[in-house]
Design brief:
The protein has helices at 2-40, 47-70, 72-78, 83-104, 108-122, 132-152, 155-175, 181-197, 223-226, 254-261, 267-272, 290-303, 325-331, 414-420, 422-429, 437-460, 466-471, 477-493, 512-516, 519-531, and strands spanning 202-204, 233-242, 248-249, 252-253, 281-286, 308-319, 338-340, 355-356, 369-374, 392-396, 434-436, 505-507. By secondary structure, it is α/β, with parallel strands linked by helices. Strands 2, 5, 6, 7, 8, 9, 10 and 12 form an 8-stranded mixed β-sheet that branches. Strand 3 (248-249) and strand 4 (252-253) form a beta hairpin. The radius of gyration is 27 Å and the shape is globular. The chain starts with a helix and ends in a 13-residue tail after the last helix.
Length: 544
């Protein structure tokens, strides 16, 4: 009798304990979903607003994940936890890490997102997705995983995921009567095009396998060697993409995808550096309205510390209205054209209110500002004013290209490619598609010395605006400026880029003789072209 009573009491205790565990799990599950939904309604600008909400959501999801790990047999037996539920939790945590990356620009959060997404796939949490709702969740998970792989440059994994997603989409179409067939077909098409657009040059190692270069910042600027000294640091950036017809995936165009990586230190550098390397906060906008641009720029300026620099990057098609003579007198040069940043609207208003004009940026020049315009009408931004005396630099792409290169913008604009990977851009304008890794390393060594020399020339140039030199004291801005000047020198030396409109410009202008046309810079470009066996495409120094 006593033993039976003890067993009964023990069973009752276990049942009671199981009920508590199930109740706590369900409570955490409900709370976590509520918090996740709240995050969707937060303002997208202002760093201080999101932090407490994200912290609370992350803490709750962490407890939920730990609960299912510790009590999985009980939760599964009670029927409140299915395999795909675990996938949903892991997917949510992966999304949180990805959004932490977007909010903070810390690349290690992408690694964390990758780990959680990898667990979902390796353990088959969505393997038995047997309903339309679960099939859609699985495909959405794959698209998020793919974005993370793109940003981490995991090419092999990326190709595997794209193939898997294509199979899932086909199965989805065959299994369910659906209305979103075109949308999912468009997703897979975009992904394949986006992936192929990033295979610009094949670098082949000694073993015959492809080698992937690194695009994020891998070096800290040595101020003494480059004669740059400044306390200014890049802290905020607004990255805008709106190139009609350019390859894109989700809200990332090829140009914005490439450029955002240039604003990040490589994680390997962060680990070995004794300095506290902090990536600037970024807003990534796709076809924003003018009001949105003003809002995000204002938010960035408001968050800017006393030693901070704001950067605005725009990749867009140009807006070039045809005015009557009376309108030219009325509007003047300042509204003679701009760049189209948002969706095209049918309007008879001139100037078009949804375009970005040089004067639109004037209020933001109250703080140190660097602007990069990659557009076929970039040249209008030469009409900028520096009325507040703060460091200001505007880098502008060529406004036109020679006939052989006029279709490049679909797979990324040329100036942005030079900023992203100068050697790959040089290969593109020389029709080089394959390079041995041995030669690539030699070219990289020459390039690194050349970029350093460019910065030294800028620091020693007495005719260069010293406020521009202040911007070049930052370890992220300096390489951008040096690569811009390398682009200018390369196109100047290339025999096909003959017209002034084929060359980049800037405000204020960089002295050509002392920097862009300096013999040592041009000689380095010729050395690289010799290694690539395309020297005949460039002018010799004696021919200039």
């Amino acid at each position: 009798m006593g033993d039976n009573a003890d067993n009964t009491m023990s069973d009752a205790t276990e049942d009671s304990s199981a009920v508590v565990i199930v109740d706590e799990f369900q409570s955490l599950q409900q709370k976590s979903e509520e918090l996740f939904e709240e995050l969707k309604h937060l303002p997208q600008f202002g760093q201080r607003i999101w932090q407490p909400y994200f912290g609370k959501a992350f803490s709750t999801f962490t407890k939920l994940w730990k609960s299912q790990q510790e009590h999985r047999p009980i939760l599964e037996e009670s029927g409140v936890l299915q395999k795909w539920d675990i996938g949903n939790i892991a997917s949510r945590i992966g999304q949180l890490y990805y959004h932490f990356y977007l909010k903070t620009s810390k690349v290690n959060y992408l690694d964390e997102a990758f780990q959680f997404y990898s667990v979902i796939k390796s353990r088959g949490y969505y393997k038995d997705a047997d309903s339309k709702e679960l099939a859609v969740k699985k495909m959405r998970y794959y698209t998020r995983f793919i974005v993370v792989c793109l940003l981490l440059d995991k090419k092999a994994k990326l190709q595997e995921l794209i193939q898997d997603l294509s199979v899932l989409v086909n199965n989805y179409h065959e299994t369910y009567e659906i209305e979103d067939k075109k949308e999912w077909n468009a997703v897979t098409t975009e992904l394949k095009a986006f992936s192929s657009s990033n295979c610009i040059v094949r670098i082949i190692g000694d073993d015959g396998k492809p080698v992937n270069p690194t695009y994020r910042c891998t070096q800290i600027l040595d101020a003494e060697r480059t004669v740059m000294s400044s306390n200014l640091q890049l802290k905020e950036a607004v990255v805008i993409g709106n190139c009609t017809g350019q390859v894109k995936f989700s809200d990332l165009t090829v140009d914005t995808f490439r450029f955002l990586q240039l604003l990040e230190y490589d994680p390997s550098l962060c680990k070995r550096s004794k300095q506290d390397l902090t990536n600037p906060h970024k807003y990534i906008l796709y076809k924003p309205t003018f009001n949105q641009i003003c809002t995000y720029l204002s938010a960035g300026i408001q968050e800017l510390p006393i030693d901070g620099v704001m950067l605005c990057y725009v990749s867009s098609i140009g807006y070039m209205p045809t005015y009557k003579p009376s309108q030219i007198e009325e509007f003047g040069l300042h509204f003679s054209g701009g760049v189209r940043t948002g969706p095209a609207e049918r309007t008879k208003a001139m100037p078009d209110p949804q375009c970005l004009y040089p004067l639109d940026l004037l209020p933001f020049t109250r703080r140190p500002l660097m602007v990069i315009i990659d557009s076929d009408n970039s040249v209008v931004f030469k009409n900028m004013y520096n009325v507040f005396g703060q460091p200001l630099l505007v880098l502008m792409s060529p406004s036109s290209y020679p006939q052989p290169f006029q279709g490049l913008s679909k797979e990324g604009n040329l100036l942005t490619l030079f900023l992203y990977s100068p050697l790959e851009a040089l290969c593109v304008i020389c029709s080089v598609s394959v390079v041995s890794h041995q030669n690539w390393v030699k070219c990289e060594q020459i390039l690194d010395r050349t970029l350093e020399k460019i910065l030294q020339l800028c620091g020693n140039c007495h005719s260069l605006d010293m406020r521009v030199c202040q911007l070049m004291g930052d370890s992220l801005l300096a390489p951008l400026i040096a690569k811009f000047l390398f682009c200018s020198s390369t196109l100047y030396l290339h025999q096909v880029f003959k017209e002034p409109a084929h060359l980049p410009t800037s405000f204020p202008e960089f002295p050509s003789k002392e920097i862009i046309h300096h013999p040592s810079i041009l000689a380095s470009i010729l050395s690289i072209s010799s290694l690539l066996e395309v020297r005949s495409l460039f002018y010799e120094l004696n021919d200039l």
